[in-house]
Each structure stands twice: as structure tokens, then as C-alpha cells.
Putative membrane protein (Chitinophaga polysaccharea), 169 residues
Amino acid sequence: MKTFLLALATIATGLIAGVYYAFSVSVNPAFAGLPDGAYIEAMNKINVAIVNPAFSLSFFGAPLLLPLVTWIYARPVFSRKAGYLLAASLIFWIGSLGVTIAGNIPLNDKLATFVVNGATAEQAAAARRAFAGAWNNWHAVRTWASIIALVLTVMACLTKDAPAQAAKR
């Protein structure tokens, strides 16, 4: 069961890292060329569409499963595998989930209040400026944190469990 949970934690972390990475290398560059009003509308549509069961399973699964498998693999003796998982948990919780909650979501919520219809070009440009730079900076942090957490989780997967006798010493 613990190997299965480790696999689920790795998959969930990988899925989130992949979503953030794909956004960074495809969506952000594509959106950079959009006019301000179209950019705001597209970001708002993505922020609504991303709240779905498939994304939620990995978005909430990784921060729940990582500490769980850390605890499982830290017993009875804290091992190198548990160390990788602890580091992955902390980096994911702070750099991915924490940054998303404290940085990206408040910016998303503020952008959602901007009404493009009837806004002047200057208002749309100001709304984009207030959003895009900060959002992209926070997004870069959570992307790298998720990738690093994934690498650490994979390292844990590749680390052999200590033999039972060595664990007793």
C-alpha cells in the first residue's frame, strides 16, 4: 500500500508540475501577444475552467499525499527516502500550494472583477499591468517549486528502502 501511495503522490505532483510548466511555455507566450481586453477575458475564462474535478484531484492530492507518504516512510526510522519526501512536501506546500493561495488566487479574484465591456483601452491596460507581472512572477515560483518537488519525489521513488535489520541499528 505504501508503494501505491508513493506512486499516487508522484503522479499528482507530476501532473501539477506539468500543468504549470505547460502554461509557462505555451499559454503565457501566446497570451503575451493578445490585446489587453482579450488577455483579461482569456485569463478569466481559464481561471473558471481550471476549477474542475480532474485538476482538483491533483491540485489537492499532491499536498495531501506528500506529507502522508513522508510520514509512512519516516517510520520506524527516518531514512533518506523520507528526507526526500519531507523536502518535497515542504517545497510543494510553501512554493506551490502556498504561493497559489497567497499570490495567484487573489490576483485571479481581482482580475475577475474587471469588466472588459465598456472599459477604455487605458483601463484595460492598467488592469493587465496590475495583474500580469505579479501573476507571472508567482506562477514562475510555483512552477519551479512543483518541478523541484517532483524531482525530489522521483528521487525518493528511486531510493531503496533500508533493510529491516539496518533500520533496527
